């Protein structure tokens, strides 16, 4: 399980950074649909990964973020 958690943390960091990068671009270019879709996918993927672990607060927060981006 430790190896699985380590992989989750590694992937989570990458997905969070990708979403942050996209959101920063969207601040100045709000019509950039590709960036919006990319941010949504990163959040959606991370939310799905939380299903492997008992992380209900994180799952809830990501679900809300996904709703906002949707």
Describe this structure in words.
With 70 residues, this protein is mainly alpha-helical. The protein has 3 helices and no strands. Helix 1 runs antiparallel to helix 2 and helix 2 runs antiparallel to helix 3.
Write a concise keyword list for the protein shown above:
single chain, 70 residues, mainly alpha, 3 helices, elongated
Q: What amount of the residues lies in strands?
A: under 5%
Number of strands: 0
Low-confidence stretches: none
Task: Sum up the overall morphology in one term.
Answer: elongated
Structural class comes to: mainly alpha
**N-to-C terminal Cα separation, in Å?**
32 Å
* Most strands sheet: none
What does the oligomeric state look like here? single chain
Q: Percent range for helical residues?
A: over 70%
Instruction: Summarize model confidence as the mean pLDDT.
Output: 95
Radius of gyration over C-alpha positions, nearest whole angstrom: 13 Å
- Order of helices and strands, N to C? HHH
Q: What is the tally of helical segments?
A: 3
């Amino acid at each position: 399980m430790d190896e699985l958690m380590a992989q989750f943390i590694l992937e989570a960091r990458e997905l969070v950074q990708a979403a942050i990068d996209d959101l920063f671009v969207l601040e100045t270019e709000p019509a950039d649909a590709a960036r919006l879709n990319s941010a949504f996918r990163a959040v959606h993927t991370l939310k799905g990964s939380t299903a492997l672990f008992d992380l209900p607060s994180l799952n809830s927060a990501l679900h809300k973020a996904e709703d906002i981006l949707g």
